[in-house]
Every structure is written in structure tokens, then in C-alpha cells.
Amino acid sequence: MEDPYAAVAERYDLFFERLDAYPKAEVAFFRDVLGADAPRRVLDCACGTGRYLPLLHSLGHDVVGMDISPAMLDRARRNLDALGLDIPLHQGDMAALPAEWRGAFDAVTCLSSSLLHVPNEAALARVLRSMAGVLRPGGLLVLTQGTSDRQAREKPRFLLARDDAVVTRLFAIDYRPPGATYHVLDVYHGPERKGLEVWSTEYARLWLRDDYARLFEKTGYTDVAFYGAYDRAPYDAMTSHRLIGVAHRPGPRAAMGL
Ligand SMILES: C[S@@+](CC[C@H](N)C(=O)[O-])C[C@H]1O[C@@H](n2cnc3c(N)ncnc32)[C@H](O)[C@@H]1O
Description:
The chain has helices at residues 9-12, 24-34, 53-58, 70-82, 121-134, 149-154, 209-218, and strands at 41-45, 62-67, 89-91, 105-110, 135-145, 158-163, 167-176, 179-189, 194-203, 222-227, 243-248. With 258 residues, the chain is α/β, with parallel strands linked by helices.
């Protein structure tokens, strides 16, 4: 099967200046949402190059990463090795998580727009049911994406993703409802490298708050909340630039979760 992230894996990490440095609000969000009283078993679905694995590990949790892309997992393994972290990584489809993981995780995360690769409601329902299947009763699901109702409405053609002394990363976005193609333009202008590199990524569907609310209900999740930022400001469809959804598999929640 073709790996759409094969050409992307070695460039993806340019989103972050350092793989193990995180904005304070993100750290606080994951600390609070997972609870700090006990280690949790956390599955990061579509973990990509492993961006969030060191953060979840640093909070004291037992973390497993999984992704469909061998190239992204290969990069993740090298990233983790460089940090001296031995975190298990699995290749697979988040719509069909392994039967032996049934009920094994306190929390499942799926971060940074990964669900935008899921093409339709039936497929998203399969993904959410698959994630519910590996959660223990009361377990927590956390979804994040950098696209929002506001972006879907205003359709900005260009967005600035990074701009510093080394590189400027710009998105040029073709909106093709229900999805979008993100062309990523990396302009290197640091002392070590100059020039332009361009790559693209396809999002099959820009899922929004009401879609998730409907699909959470359909797939049996409860205690659903939506935030518009990592400081847990409530999601506002008019103004928010980010969409964070949390939901639970029905059951006793213990101390975990908001
Ligand atoms: C935008 S990247 C996000 C990576 C990572 N979560 C992060 O925060 O940097 C999307 C990832 O979703 C993965 N992906 C797409 N469809 C998937 C599927 N069905 N199962 C597992 N991973 C999938 C891709 O291979 C890619 O690594």
C-alpha cells in the first residue's frame, strides 16, 4: 500500500524547533486532562514522528505510539532514540486497533489533525469505535486539530506555520469541500541552508465540532467537551483557531479527566 507520508516524514519535524520542547499550556493541558495522581496507559493513535510521545512520557505515563505510515514510524523511532526513550511503536490502522489491546488503555490521544485523513462519517465512526474498544470503561479520548469552524468559514488561502531565523514555513491551502490540500512551503534562510522546498498533504475532510459531537453520540461516548485552546477556553465556532475534543467511554472515571 502506498504511504502518503513517505515523502513527508523527513520534513515533518520542521514544525517544531525541538522535539522535546512544548508550550507550557500544552504541557498543563495534558497533565490536567490525564490526571497527575497515577501513571496512565496512554495510546497515541496516528503518533506520526512521535511529537507527543516524549511529553506524555515526561508526565509519568506508560505510552504506546501507533501509526499507519512506516516512514513516520521510522522517523519516530530515530527521534525517540536521540532522546534516549524506549517507547513501543506499532504500525497499523487506527480504524482496526489490535484485538489484544481491548480495554488496555486509560486514554487514547489522536493529535494534530490526524482525523482529517478519515474520509467520511462511516469511516470516522469505525475509528471512534475502534478507539473505544481499546479504552477501559471510563477511559478518556483526546482529539486535537489546528483547523476550526472559523477556518472552514473564512478559508484563508495562506497561513504562517513557523517563522524564525532558520526557516519560514507557510501553508497555501486549496479548499475542496469537504476536504483541503495543504501545500507546505519551506523557505530556508539560515546560515546553514538557503532555498525553497515544497510538499503537500491531503486532508479528506475538515471535521468540525458538530461532526464530532454527532459521531461521539453515535459511537457511545459520554461526558464530551470541546475547547478552543490548550488553556481550556471553551470552543467558540466564531473565533477559535483550534479544536480540541475530549470524550469518555462510559464507566467509572476515577480521578482522571476533566
Ligand atoms: C498530521 S500527522 C500528525 C502526527 C502526530 N499526531 C503529531 O501530532 O505530529 C497525521 C498522521 O496520521 C497518520 N494516519 C493517517 N491515517 C491513519 C490511520 N488510519 N491509522 C493510523 N495513522 C494514520 C499519518 O500517517 C500521519 O502520521
